[in-house]
Specification:
By secondary structure, the chain is α/β, with parallel strands linked by helices. It has 15 helices and 28 strands. The strands form six sheets. Strands 9-8-7-4-3-1-22-23 form an eight-stranded mixed sheet. Strands 10-11-12-13-14-20 form a six-stranded mixed sheet. Strands 16-17-15-18-19 form a five-stranded parallel sheet, sandwiched between helices. α6 runs parallel beside α7 and α14 packs antiparallel against α15. The longest helix is centred in the C-terminal third of the chain and has 22 residues.
């Protein structure tokens, strides 16, 4: 009997972000990506959401390495947190490793990882796995498909992918090698990107965006142009640079991550901008504004991004006015719409002209749509299939697409975070769940639970009412108070009247409880909470957080 392979999904199945899976055989584990998810407004104070690292930490002695498929934060963002608990080799392309190295250096962890470079077509042993790396087209350079050659056959992980016949760097998704693997020895299991599984048609080529950008720069020839994009989208930055050079402009990267990524990409040769055509942000005041094309972060309305600072009039480098045109070369990620609208409004107030993807086709997806997914399935012809990387609706859509392509229904497995599957001689079976919990980061790892987040939501939405009471339990006497401190639930002048009503109600309730010989501080706290909540609800129909503090002496 051939050695089985287990796959434990620790994140990325049911959400966009925190992609992480553990591939296991012969008792050894290789981690495939270790990403984070950025917190939305529903998680106040949370910096990031991580995969269930606890399971990996508990199995640290069995983990041989991490394979980083590409350098997006949802695939590498949790590495610093993992490496605080274990030192590991990390495999990735030269650009991916460059991004990881900077991230680890910032976290003071650069000595915790042995960074090992892979190139297209490489095949090597990582732990017990015979791993082969194929090029894949995505919205970041140098991503890799991973083919795990195991005793159970080939397990193919698509990474984030699209099929672009005219990619900016000429590096196409290697369908020919996938087809060869499908022919011999065959692909036993495929895990594939589901992000656009519910979107018909095919994604547009990145090359098409270059022509649009060139046209926009020509149409704004007498204006300074600012293009906002993801700092990691080097292909898009190449398109912007080519458009700028063709319209006699220089490129000025603005923003810490933008400047850093441009520098790294030029150093490794995947971003081609001549020295004469790129200027430092510190030189911007000495340049003719009409011959400048700024590239910056902030396309998603990120609070600390360069464009957000410009919209607030707080940029260190430039002040925008009616002579500027701002191009958002990215679609708002779901959940970011409000933040993006706020930045656009700020730019409009400054007089800048704003152009976005709702008006002109200045963006295309880095994830394959239904036509591309069908092509992948028809080339790979997997025996078993698990949709990965997507919200639950995306996974369901990809499952249905695989079935429409002719796969047996019981050979397509819909998994979620925490699920553990085993591929053996008898097929692909569900073993159970290891948890797959979300790990919330606020400054340090794992110090936030759902109870704390629930309290933060209440405080943020409804405010709080704190009531302080001093009693002498032994004598059954009220010594001082009640004193009320409250914030964020009603406005002055009504606030004082409401607080007075709370004082009266709590005083009556405490005096009665002491008269009934209640001598337990916990019971008295409950009584104070009920009395306060009753008055607050009766007078305002609001539900602030009630904080009773009963002290003895």
């Amino acid at each position: 009997m051939a050695e089985p392979v287990r796959i434990t999904f620790l994140g990325g199945l049911g959400e966009i972000g925190r992609n992480c899976a553990a591939i296991e055989t012969e008792g050894r584990i290789v981690v495939l990506d270790c990403g984070q998810m950025f917190a939305g407004d529903d998680l106040p104070g949370v910096d990031a959401v991580l995969p269930d690292l606890e399971w990996l930490i508990d199995n640290a002695d069995r983990v041989d390495a991490v394979i980083a498929t590409h350098a997006h934060e949802d695939h590498i963002g949790a590495l610093p947190y993992l490496l605080r608990h274990m030192a590991l080799p990390i495999y990735g392309s030269v650009f991916t490793l460059g991004m990881i190295e900077h991230k680890l250096r910032e976290a003071g962890l650069n000595g915790r990882a042995d960074l090992r470079r892979i190139s297209d077509g490489d095949r090597m042993m990582i732990g017990p796995f015979d791993c082969e790396f194929l090029p894949v087209t995505h919205s970041i350079p140098s991503g890799n498909i991973t083919a795990f050659h195991t005793e159970q056959g080939v397990i193919l992980h698509s990474s984030d992918f699209k099929l672009d016949l005219t990619p900016v760097d000429g590096r196409r998704t290697d369908l020919s090698r996938i087809g060869a693997l499908a022919h011999n020895p065959g692909i036993r299991l495929m895990l594939a990107d589901s992000t656009n599984a519910d979107s018909p048609g095919a994604s547009r080529s990145e090359k098409e965006i270059g022509a649009v950008l060139t046209g926009l720069l020509r149409a704004n020839d007498e204006r300074r142009v600012i293009v906002a994009s993801f700092a990691s989208h080097i292909h898009r930055l190449q398109q912007v640079a080519d458009a700028a050079i063709s319209t006699n402009r220089v490129v000025v990267p603005v923003g810490l991550s933008m400047r850093r990524n441009v520098k790294l990409a030029r150093e490794v040769g995947i971003l081609r901008i001549p020295d004469y055509a790129i200027k430092d942000a510190e030189e911007i005041d000495d340049l003719d504004p009409q011959r400048v094309c700024v590239v910056c972060t902030g396309s998603q309305g990120e609070p600390r991004a360069a464009l957000t600072q410009m919209a607030r009039g707080e940029s260190r480098w430039l002040a925008l006015d009616e002579n500027d045109t701002v191009i958002f070369s990215a679609h708002p990620i779901p959940g970011n719409e409000t933040a993006v609208a706020s930045v656009r409004n700020g730019l409009a107030r400054l007089g800048a002209k704003v152009i976005h993807s709702g008006q002109v086709d200045v963006h295309t997806s880095g994830h394959g749509k239904q036509a591309e997914l069908k092509t992948l399935h028809s080339v790979a012809v997997p025996e078993f299939f698990v949709p990965v990387h997507g919200e639950y609706a995306h996974l369901v859509a990809h499952r249905d697409l695989a079935r429409e392509m002719g796969m047996d229904h019981d050979h397509v497995v819909l998994a979620e975070d925490g699920d553990q599957l085993e591929l053996s001689d008898t097929g692909l079976v569900y073993l159970g769940s290891v948890g797959g919990d979300h790990l919330y980061v606020d400054g340090t790892v794992g110090d936030l639970g759902n109870a704390v987040l629930g309290d933060r939501r209440v405080l943020g939405n409804d405010g709080f009412v704190a009531v302080i009471v001093h009693v002498d339990i032994e004598r059954r006497e009220l010594l001082a108070g009640p004193d009320v401190v409250s914030r964020g639930w009603v406005e002055e002048p009504a606030l004082r009247a409401h607080e007075t009503a709370v004082v009266d109600a709590v005083q009556r309730a405490v005096m009665q409880a002491l008269g009934d010989d209640i001598d337990d501080l916990g019971r008295l706290s409950q009584i104070v909470r009920r009395a306060t909540g009753g008055i607050v609800s009766e007078r305002t129909r609001r539900r602030p957080m009630i904080v009773p503090m009963v002290r003895d002496g």
